[in-house]
Write a structure and sequence with these properties.
Order of helices and strands: HHHHHHHHHEEH
Number of helices: 10
Radius of gyration: 23 Å
Structural class: mainly alpha
Distance between the termini: 24 Å
């Protein structure tokens, strides 16, 4: 019997409590609890790492830098240790959309269609559309909730000790992790994975295709990120003194993005990624209805 029908009520054995439709979210949680627990633990570890660096490590780094300065030694390694840990947290969460796409394509959708689990659920008064909606809703809620918490914590950690940080706002992972783009990439991975699973109906091929598509989406947006908003150009008679937090563009012709361009660029990229997510998710529903209608 399918994992979707393991438990039932006394009156209707095999039907989840509350009916097959209302019980679907709980069934998804039960069926994929291991993956969801791993995701939760991963985010907790990332958030805990950031809090530890800010509240515990920062003061000890400053003490080591002060001691290093008194002895005339090189202090760069101390700065690298601190900023590197915070940078790794943003990098791992940012690129976790590959894991989300692989999970959605390989386990969430592809495997259910490949081994007949989904088809069995459809015989229990659950339409294919409702099955897909419930299957995607649970991880989507967790992605939004967990990603939002991480963004707020990362913004706090990134700004807390700027004198110890080497990462600037133009770095790919920092650029995404300081705002909703990191959540949008997760939702995009979910939608692309669902579409690959519905189209291919085999877990491993769907996994490979979903990760490949997400790589192309992310790579091209990173490559053309500087073009998402019109750059500023200094007045020819006044010039401009470029600081370390300015994103210089091209071959030194004076075109640049000041830090004030961060939010316009970030929100444009977020909108594009969410648009891909919506299109992929909508296409997944359309393909499923066509094949099961």
């Amino acid at each position: 019997m399918s994992a979707f029908a393991v438990k039932g009520t006394a009156e209707t054995p095999g039907v989840p409590p509350g009916g097959p439709v209302k019980g679907l979210p709980w069934t998804v949680l039960r069926l994929h609890r291991a993956a969801l627990v791993v995701w939760g633990a991963f985010l907790l570890a990332a958030v805990g790492m950031l809090v530890w660096e800010v509240e515990i490590t920062a003061d000890s780094v400053r003490d080591r830098i002060a001691a290093c300065g008194r002895t005339g030694g090189l202090c760069l390694q101390n700065l690298t240790d601190y900023s590197g840990t915070i940078g790794w947290a943003s990098t791992l969460v940012y690129y976790s959309f590959f894991a989300v796409a692989a999970f959605a394509a390989g386990a969430l959708i592809g495997r259910a269609l490949e081994n007949g689990t989904a088809q069995l659920v459809w015989t229990q008064s659950v339409s294919p559309t409702r099955w897909l909606a419930a299957t995607l809703a649970v991880p989507a809620v967790l992605l939004v909730a967990g990603g939002t918490v991480f963004v707020f914590v990362f913004r706090w950690a990134w700004a807390a000790n700027r004198d110890l940080m080497g990462d600037d706002w133009t770095f790919n992972d920092v650029f995404a992790a300081r705002g909703p783009a990191v959540v949008a990439y997760g939702l995009c991975g979910l939608g692309v994975g669902a579409l690959a699973g519905v189209v291919l109906r085999r877990s491993l091929p769907a996994l490979g295709v979903a990760c490949g598509v997400m790589y192309l989406v992310n790579h091209n947006l990173e490559k053309h990120r500087e073009d998402l908003w019109p750059p500023a150009t200094p007045a020819p008679t006044k010039g401009v003194e470029m600081s370390s937090d300015v994103w210089q563009i091209g071959d030194g012709t004076g075109r640049f993005h000041p830090q004030s361009h961060y939010w316009p660029m970030h929100l444009v990229e977020t909108g594009i990624v969410l648009g891909v997510a919506v299109l992929a998710t909508g296409a997944a529903f359309w393909v499923l209805r066509r094949r099961t209608g």
